[in-house]
Amino acid sequence: MLKTLSLLFAVILLASCAPNSEPQPQVLEGRIFGTFFEVSVGVQHEFNPEEIEAGVMDVLNEIDRQMSTYRQDSVLVAVNKTPVGEPVAVPDELFYVLALGYDIAEVSSGAYDYTVGGLVNLWGFGPEASITKTPSETELQQRLHEVGYQNVVLDAENKTVTRLTDVFIDLSGIAKGYAVDEVSDYLHSMGLSNHLVNIGGDLMAQGKRSENRAWRIGIEAPNDTRQVVRHILPLRDVAMLGSGDYRNYFEHEGVRYSHTISPITGRPIAHKLAAVNVLGDNAAEADAFATVLLVLGEELGLAFANQYDIGALFIYRDGEDFNSVMSERFEREHAESMEVPTLN
């Protein structure tokens, strides 16, 4: 599996307000990458559920085979084990994700960096053993010195990857988004243009749930223990990816340490931003940008989103409560349709 993390960002597929007699989308579901997946197909379509479920699983299992850091037989594990300086030929899909991640690392000045895997392991959130105390400063500086996407060379002509130093490449911040894209593309290829793909809370909404009803998504407040819907958003022909620090962490001597590690400081993030949700056409790209914004925090993240015209909704801590702020693109494209649920 790609990663065994707790659900970082949760969305809730909301049933429409239609009468119970109205046909409902058919839902295919299962487990992959250490989390759940759900594929909802609009009522406009007739299809063979067994055939589509098998096709979806083929797509997901192939991505897992290529990009997992938990499977010892994965292509990425083989890359990480190859001696430094030796090129490794990789499949087109893995090369695409590595190249996209490299580009986002460049534009974000390293706020997203898939060589952060060594630090993730050091803090107990990767495939290495969990920890019971915080790393020493010596261990931290050693791992931080090893981080750097510039130490990965991608040869587009030959589709090879070369590690210049012993970096640990971890694609958990982008591969799930890529999987959402690939499942959506598969459904389109099967003529199922109205669908909602949900892999561990990362979404792609295409078309409508029925002729007259949109897919409606509930965005949770960042609560550690219970689901509380903060916003309701109709989605069509767009991906929504999220990252948050509130459901996967450990505590040591009264301090809570987030699973999100800053490639810049080498430490878990420590600011008021609790969750960020990014909307865009490409789920893999949105996945990585959600990590960028969470690493940067509410102020720098908002500035970055506005600079690069990213649709993003930030939920940040304000004392004992939470507040939200939208990027300019999010406000322009989604603010008018977003609802705030009434609490009874």
Automatic annotation (TrEMBL):
Keywords: Cell inner membrane, Cell membrane, FAD, Flavoprotein, Lipoprotein, Magnesium, Membrane, Metal-binding, Signal, Transferase. Transmembrane segments: none annotated. Its EC number is 2.7.1.180. It is a lipid-anchor. Mg(2+) binds at residues 173, 287, 291. Its main location: membrane. Its cofactor is Mg(2+); Mn(2+). Residues 1-20 form the signal peptide. One of its GO terms (cellular component) is plasma membrane. It comes from the Bacteria. The keyword Cytoplasm does not apply. It is found in: Cell inner membrane. Magnesium. Can also use manganese. GO terms for molecular function: metal ion binding; transferase activity. InterPro entries: ApbE (IPR024932), ApbE-like_sf (IPR003374). It catalyses: L-threonyl-[protein] + FAD = FMN-L-threonyl-[protein] + AMP + H(+). It is an enzyme of class 2 (transferase). PANTHER family: FAD:PROTEIN FMN TRANSFERASE, THIAMINE BIOSYNTHESIS LIPOPROTEIN APBE. Belongs to the ApbE family. Flavin transferase that catalyzes the transfer of the FMN moiety of FAD and its covalent binding to the hydroxyl group of a threonine residue in a target flavoprotein. This is FAD:protein FMN transferase.
